[in-house]
Amino acid sequence: MTLTEAIHSYVQRKRANGLAFHKGQIELLSFCKHVGDRPLNRVNSLDVVSFLDNRRISTMTWLHKYHLLKRFFEFWSQRGAMPLLLMPPSRPPAVKTFTPYIYTRAEIRALLIATRQCQKRSLCVIDSVTLRCLLVTLYATGTLLSEVLDLRIEDIQLRSRRITLHGNRVTQFRIIPICSDLQKELQAYMALKHKGKKARGRFFLTKSGQPINPGTLEDRFQRLRQITGIARYDGAVYQPRMHDLRSTFAVHRITSWIKEGADLNRMLPALAAYLGNVSLASTEQYLSLTPERFRKELEKLSPQRGKKRWRDNLALMKFLSSL
C-alpha cells in the first residue's frame, strides 16, 4: 500500500464516521508531497521530523500536525500495514499568545478593490463579485465564515433588513439587523445571481452553482492579501486571516461607540448578542484590541471595573431581549 492509498482510505473512513476531515486531508497530502508517494511501510521517523521542521510554524500548529500523523500511523500499524513508527519527541505546549489582526478601513477597501484582479483567471471557481460580496458580509456583520457560507436565499430578508443565522458549536441561532449599505450589496448580488430563481438553496455559490469550499476561499483570501501587500510585521507567526474580519468588525464598532460617547456597559452585551457569543467574556476580549488612544475611555467605561453583574440591569436585559 502506498502512502497516497493509505491517506485516501483513512480519509474515507473518517468521513464515513461523520467527520468532514478537510484540513486533516490537506495536511496528510502535504506530508505525502514532502516525502514522496512511497510504500507506507518505508516511512520513517526522519521523514516526520523533516516535514514538521520544514517551515517555521507556531508550536500549536506543530503539535496539531504531530498528533495528526501519530494517529494516522497508529491506525495503520494496528492493522499490520506498517511497523510501529517511533515518533520524534513532542514539543511542550506553548502558552497561547495569539492576537487577531485588526484591519484598517483603508486595508478593507484595498481588499475589496483587489477582488477583480485576484479572480480574473477563468480557472477561478469563485468569481470576483461573489468574493467581494462575501468579504463585505463578513466585515459588515462580524459573522463566522461557516455561518456566511451556510446562508440560504430565504435567510436574507432584504425588505426588513435582517439576516437569519443558524449558528453552530461556537455561535447561537439569531436574527440580526443589517445596515443599508450591506442591504444594497446583497440586493445587487441577489439580482445578479438569483434573479428569477426560487427562494431556496445556498446564497453564495461557485461559478458552477456549487457550495463554496472553505479551503478554496481561504486560499483565495491569502492570494488577495498578497496582492494588496497586507501583512504582519510584529513577529507573529500567523499572517492576517479572513477570520480576523470578525475581530475587526467588533473593534471598529467599539471604537465608533467610544467616539460617539455611547455607554459600553449597555452596548457590549448588545454586541455579544449580535455576534452570537455564548458569554460576554468572548466579546470583552475586543476591548484590549482597540487603539491605545482610547485606553482612558475604556478604563472608565469597561464593566469590569464595577462589581455589578450584567444580568442585574433590568433595563439592559429588556433591551437585549428585544434584539
Through-space gap between termini:
57 Å
Question: In which order are the strands of the major sheet placed?
Answer: 1-2-3
- Please report which band the strand proportion falls in: under 5%, 5-15%, 15-25%, 25-35%, 35-45% or over 45%: under 5%
Total individual domains = 3
Helix/strand-derived class? mainly alpha
What does this protein look like?
It is a single chain. This protein is mainly alpha-helical and 323 residues long. It has three domains: 3-77, Orthogonal Bundle (DNA polymerase, domain 1); 105-228, Intergrase catalytic core (hpI Integrase, Chain A), CATH 1.10.443; 244-321, no CATH class. Helices cover 51% and strands 3% of the residues. It is built from 15 helices and three strands. The chain has helices spanning 3-16, 22-35, 45-52, 59-77, 105-113, 115-118, 128-141, 145-149, 180-193, 214-228, 244-260, 264-275, 280-284, 295-301, 314-321; strands spanning 156-157, 162-165, 174-177. The protein has a three-stranded antiparallel β-sheet, with no helix packed on it. α1 runs antiparallel to α2 (22-35). The radius of gyration is 23 Å and the shape is globular. The N and C termini lie far apart (57 Å).
